[in-house]
Amino acid sequence: MKQRILTGVIAAAVFLPLVIFGELPFTLLVYAIGILALFELLRMKGLKLISAPGIISMLLLAVLLCPSQYAEDAGLGITKGEVVFLAVLLLLAYTVLSKNSFTFDEAAFVALAAVYIGFGFYYFIEIRNIGLSYVFFAIGVVWSTDSGAYFIGKAFGKRKLWPEISPNKTVEGFWGGILTAVVFSAIYQAATGFPHAYLFVLIITVLLSIVGQIGDLAESAFKRHYQVKDSGRILPGHGGMLDRFDSFLFVMPVLYFLLVLFQPFGL
């Protein structure tokens, strides 16, 4: 526990100032985290980062992570979706060149891994560009959900939520995580003057809390499938980058979509 707390304090001391500063330093931090997360995911599958598929996935990741303002400034006239399709074609071509030692299934895995991590962290950057308060709101919802699910699940949990995926999670912990996130969001809005209607914040808090727990379960699913305990060991006591950011890869895109979707209504 001491190691876990120490790692968390050091990581927060590095991460939070760059989040607050934003701009290029924060973008570079997200790139670094994204590269490490992709490396962890490829390693689960037994694929090397320094290989033709690994390099293709890295290049695809770099494009997908590119913030919208930089992409517009470049003026290349090609969309990220088209880059994804080009990467898929290259991966399929490599199945031929490798005489099918690199299979279609592996090509699909590499492409999906880069899209999952690339777009997930891209929306982390986009949310920061919208405003720092939204980043802290998302971080607070995820952390309060995790804490509430853990402590309430440990104290009152009896019914298993999804034992085939994560045997320690309970239904009581699931609802406890949502309740804790709602309490956090109410305090956060009252303390910061978060510029949205209370009902809207309540709705998006519940949705993000659920989505974040699904993101956590999704990572648990492929760790169980590939029979690994943690995605990595870069964060002693916490595991790897995917272990720490699995919920954010789901929460940040959904938060961005909700803000865009409801912006015309001024909620």
TrEMBL record:
GO terms under biological process: CDP-diacylglycerol biosynthetic process
Cellular component GO terms, alphabetical: plasma membrane
Compartment(s) where it occurs, according to its Swiss-Prot or TrEMBL record: Cell membrane
Keyword Cell membrane included in the entry's annotation: yes
Enzyme superclass (EC): transferase
EC identifiers of the protein: 2.7.7.41
Residues spanning the membrane: 6-39, 46-65, 77-97, 109-125, 131-152, 173-191, 197-215, 248-266
Record's keyword terms, sorted: Cell membrane, Lipid biosynthesis, Lipid metabolism, Membrane, Nucleotidyltransferase, Phospholipid biosynthesis, Phospholipid metabolism, Transferase, Transmembrane, Transmembrane helix
Origin: domain of life: Bacteria
Catalytic activity annotation: a 1,2-diacyl-sn-glycero-3-phosphate + CTP + H(+) = a CDP-1,2-diacyl-sn-glycerol + diphosphate
One term of GO molecular function: phosphatidate cytidylyltransferase activity
Membrane topology, record value: Multi-pass membrane protein
Pfam families per record: CTP_transf_1
Family to which this protein belongs: Belongs to the CDS family.
Record protein name field: Phosphatidate cytidylyltransferase
Organism: Bacillus licheniformis (strain ATCC 14580 / DSM 13 / JCM 2505 / CCUG 7422 / NBRC 12200 / NCIMB 9375 / NCTC 10341 / NRRL NRS-1264 / Gibson 46)
Gene (name only): cdsA
